[in-house]
Amino acid sequence: MKRQLILEDGTYFVGRGFGADTELKGEVVFNTGMTGYQEILSDPSYCGQIVTLTYPLIGNYGINRDDFESITPAIHGLIVREVEREPSHWKNEESLHTFLQARGIPGLEGIDTRKLTRLIREHGTLRGRICSMDVDRDEIVQELSNSGWQHDQVETVSVRDAYHAPGKEERIVLVDFGMKHGILQSLIERHCDVVVVPYDTSAEEILRLRPDGILLSNGPGNPEDVPQAITMIQELLGKVPIFGICLGHQLLALASGATTSKLRFGHRGSNHPVREIATGKIDITAQNHGYTVDKESLVNTRLEMTHEAVNDGTVEGLKHLDYPAFSVQYHPEASPGPEDASYLFDAFLHMIAEEKKSKEIQAI
Fold this sequence. Notes:
The active site is at 246 (nucleophile), 331, 333. Keywords: Amino-acid biosynthesis, Arginine biosynthesis, ATP-binding, Glutamine amidotransferase, Ligase, Nucleotide-binding, Pyrimidine biosynthesis. InterPro entries: Anth_synth/Amidotransfase (IPR050472), CarbamoylP_synth_ssu (IPR006274), CarbamoylP_synth_ssu_N (IPR002474), CarbP_synth_ssu_N_sf (IPR036480), Class_I_gatase-like (IPR029062), CPSase_GATase1 (IPR035686), GATASE (IPR017926). Belongs to the CarA family. The structure is a single chain. The chain is of the alpha/beta class. The protein has two domains: 2-146, Glucose Oxidase, domain 1, CATH 3.50.30; 153-363, 3-Layer(aba) Sandwich (Rossmann fold), CATH 3.40.50.880. Helices cover 26% and strands 31% of the residues. The chain has ten helices and 19 strands. It has a ten-stranded mixed sheet, sandwiched between helices. Strand 18 and strand 19 (325-328) form a beta hairpin. Helix 8 (227-236) crosses helix 9 (247-255). The chain is globular.
């Protein structure tokens, strides 16, 4: 069945539909990963977005129960050069087509994904709609041009009620702004006692949980759309060690007086090199974000830049000079992606141990 992608600038691409026979609009972005489409589909950070995968063949190993990053996908569409409808893998349980069909997510194949990617790189991310062939393109273009960016993504994907993942070591309060399950799994593997709380939980409520540390998760959208989280972080700084990932990194920056801005086409893929400034060490990282912390805004803050992107020099890591708090823009749980940065979870737990030791000494 023919289906098309219409963009707000009037460009359109005609291809073949797969997945759900439904029409959805969203911000059209691209991801450069060669594998990991299941994790990408289920990553809450893609809430409201239509994702173009630059690797030409997608779906060859199917869908399995183990590689989900959330229970309910929030993505609004998937665009590929070619989809494999008969996957072959020992863990395969269903095809990409049937999965998208069951979840109400439209797919489009058979278009020139290289041309679409170049268009996004040149003009920046664009609003688009995957739709049938019988729509009035001019009407769709006008609708897309007049619609603003979505501002409720975090509220859409955050957990509604707190829950407990018991462990015997440090109590970590994990604030869910659109958390990937890989982050929770990384803490569980380190025997942490984890309490996952909604994005709008107050500092007072968090402190009542008696945390040893607080982890600010990844999530979708503009960090300025979550002002209550900025206030919460400001009230917690200096009281409990804090580790921020992706959106959590941006929120820590805003809470400390820095600013953020939207990138032209974002960083989305599993092969982004990041340099640790102090040592020059390079990590290959997984990334998925459309906003960045403004480097020049750090001058009047108590934040120090610890990591930078090799490709474009943007801020990839921060630490607070007065309080036990640090953050990274990339994903140390890396699913999909390399595991170079997984040591950051151990660094977080080490920071917690050092803070406990310091308080014990002060008590004496």
